Amino acid sequence: MFKLWFWMIRVVAALYRRAGLLIATRLHRASLARVGAGTRFQAGVRFDRPDRVEIGADCYFWQGVGASAEGDHASLKIGDRVQVNRCALLDTVGGLTLADDVMVSEHVVISTHDHGRDPRAIPVPVPKTIGAGVWIGMRAVVLPSCRHIGAGAVIGAGAVVTRDVPAGAIVAGNPARVIGQRDVSEVAA
Fold first, then answer.
1. Which keywords does UniProt give here (predicted)?
2. What is 2-188's CATH superfamily?
């Protein structure tokens, strides 16, 4: 009897998740400036300025992703085949661009504005570009002082990125430092 209840609950939960995915995807398609074919959103994804969000094809956004925005510079441009995982925070105040094939892991924070030394000061927008094929590991923090992450770079889990990252570099630590380089064939793939 227990197995029957277990499987019935699993089936109902799967149907509930599927319905949430379909509804959330339709709502985001209707509200965002542009959404490419095949892009899907789980329930619980939030964009503060949907009119300034452009997303390419075949992207996937997990539950809890938030894109915060304020001011005139706020924008979010995302290429094709980008995946943003659970509870990632994309600050778009200064403008954020994610190129094709970027992977943003769980609980990542990407910041595009700075307050200097006064937390109550007006935010200073800092535009940020993340190159094609970049992988940002779980719980990494990309601060506004980093304006560019080069194509194919890997940001280690828990890294605090304080400066620009060259293409193909593997960085880790706090503050993040280059600890290796990816093969050219990996970066091109």
1. Transferase
2. Hexapeptide repeat proteins (2.160.10.10)
